[in-house]
UniProtKB/TrEMBL annotation:
GO biological process, one term: cellular response to toxic substance
One term of GO molecular function: oxidoreductase activity
Protein family according to the UniProt entry: Belongs to the class-II pyridine nucleotide-disulfide oxidoreductase family.
Entries under Pfam families matching the protein: Pyr_redox_2
Tagged with keyword Transmembrane: no
PANTHER family membership: THIOREDOXIN REDUCTASE 1-RELATED-RELATED
Record's keyword annotation contains Oxidoreductase: yes
Official protein name in the record: FAD/NAD(P)-binding domain-containing protein
Record-linked InterPro entries: FAD/NAD-bd_sf, FAD/NAD-binding_dom, Ferredoxin-NADP_redctase_2
Domain spans labelled FAD/NAD(P)-binding: 9-303
Native species: Zopfia rhizophila CBS 207.26
SUPFAM superfamilies: FAD/NAD(P)-binding domain (SSF51905)
Top-rank lineage group of the source organism: Eukaryota
Length: 327
């Protein structure tokens, strides 16, 4: 039977949350994994750079992971619900822990809390962008570019010096690479240096304002067409663009008062040690919630670290209580 107070409340059932749950299961720790069924990779058909699961369906990956935890272990449970409130409070005698509530106002109690809620992409205000995501717009060439090789590539936006790196990588997939800046490119020195590098590598530049994006069909062979406010349109196999990201559960981050990073970099939750504890004792973060590099394999590793950290802290607190009881 599930105890009233579990060791860990894990919010999020993506790679990070599932890995954290396994860390609890392997040490007989009790935990609840909350699955809102909202994922950043919604609509993605394949996941990549995951050893033994390369080119697998992410929905199938999550299904198998859940089934393995449910069938093999008996101290970790799943709740298909969305957590809307979280607070640190006394949960048992003088034990500080966490109380969370879901959208049905059901309450759950745990000694430790792990936020594995991930991030959410904020799409630019361009007509047709949403309709081409994720079928023809990819934020990571390493994750999704390989299968689209051999077709013309567009790099949308040029507001970061890092864009020259993206251009260099894109040229590995096809030599027809064009930067579509959607307006004049900044004169700031780092941006101009990146632009100089991009041109030297072989990329062309189109600064026209974009009117809309048209989805021409399901694959890169049909691709996407960019219509501009002036001049002829351009058809491509796919577009590379990394939209801004925000914490998917920013409301919980604010309720808990967690320290976060630069909003321009996604406002990721800051962690204070190798076990991913946040600025609030007993609260840990994992995966895209705290990692700047947002990738499935990395998320899994961070989930294990958070789960181990929470378990380690529980054992330390139990040891302290045992010593006090003898005094």
């Amino acid at each position: 039977m599930r105890p009233r107070v579990v060791d860990g409340l894990i919010i999020g059932a993506g790679p990070a949350g599932l890995a954290a749950g396994l860390a609890f299961a392997r040490t007989h720790g009790t935990a609840i994994i909350f699955d809102s069924s909202s994922y950043r990779n919604e609509g993605i058909k394949h996941m990549h750079t995951v050893p033994s699961r390369d080119h697998s369906d992410p929905y199938e990956f999550r299904r198998i992971s859940r089934e393995q935890i449910k069938s093999r272990y008996h101290t970790v449970w799943f709740e298909n619900t969305t957590i809307t409130h979280a607070v640190r409070k006394l949960i048992k005698n003088d034990c500080l822990g966490f109380e969370v509530k879901d959208n049905n106002n059901t309450t759950y109690l745990g000694r430790k809390l792990i936020l594995a809620t991930g991030s959410r992409d904020v799409f630019p205000d361009i007509e047709g962008y949403k309709e081409n995501w994720p079928s023809h717009i990819y934020q990571c060439l390493a994750c999704d570019g390989y299968e689209q090789s051999g077709t013309p590539i567009g790099i949308l936006d040029f507001k970061s010096p890092m864009q020259s790196h993206i251009v260099g990588m894109a040229l590995n997939f096809d030599k027809r690479v064009t930067i579509f800046s959607n307006g004049p490119i900044s004169n700031e020195a780092p941006i101009q240096q990146a632009l100089k590098i991009s041109k030297a590598l072989g990329a062309s530049v189109d600064e026209r304002k974009i009117k809309r994006l048209i989805n021409n069909g399901p694959s890169h062979e049909q691709g996407v067409t960019i219509e501009f406010e002036e001049g002829p349109s351009v058809s491509l196999g796919f577009i590379v663009h990394r939209p801004a990201t925000v914490n998917r559960a920013q409301d919980l981050v604010e309720q808990l008062g967690l320290e976060t990073g630069d909003p321009a970099m996604g406002g990721n939750v800051k962690v204070m040690d190798m076990f991913n504890e946040t600025s609030l004792r007993g609260c840990f973060a994992a995966g895209d919630t705290m990692a700047l590099i947002k990738q499935a394999t990395i998320a899994m590793a961070e989930g294990v670290k958070a789960g181990v950290g929470a378990g380690k802290q529980i054992l330390e607190e139990r040891a302290e209580d045992a010593v006090k009881a003898l005094e």
